[in-house]
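Person: Show me a sequence?

Helper:
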Amino acid sequence: MTVLLLAGIVFTLILITKQRDVASIGIVRNITYKLKEYPMSANYWQAGITLFVANAALFALAFVILFFLPYGAMAGLLMCIPLSLFTWVIFSEVWRGSWKDKVKMTFIGSAFFLFFLGWIFWYYATLEPAFPGDDLFMAWIGVIIASIFSIGAMSVSMFVILRK
């Protein structure tokens, strides 16, 4: 599992450093060209809510792959991370408004990860032991791991979208 985590981190760093190359791929240019016609590309509320929904859908896809497919962790790393970065690059390239509004759009869209982090802490705070003397240490480890992944995903999302 540690090897998969390290491979995912290295893979993410490689994709982030090659972000401009990804933005110049023909399919990304075609998608951004078509999306720039919509008012979403200049309204930070519409773009932020769309990004929020996209992040929620990507999270749901990763959740389904992780828990319902054999070897889901490997499939998730190989598919969901590039798909997320691809989506965030498209949002970065589609934006036509000011830099200040782009920051607002990014915070609105990445708020999904803050809501998820809040749910994680609420779930842990209201967790009851299954039986007297039950140790909740493993639940605490799960909270720490989920927090790291949520903060990491939010940071990478903001970095990719706000990078010039």
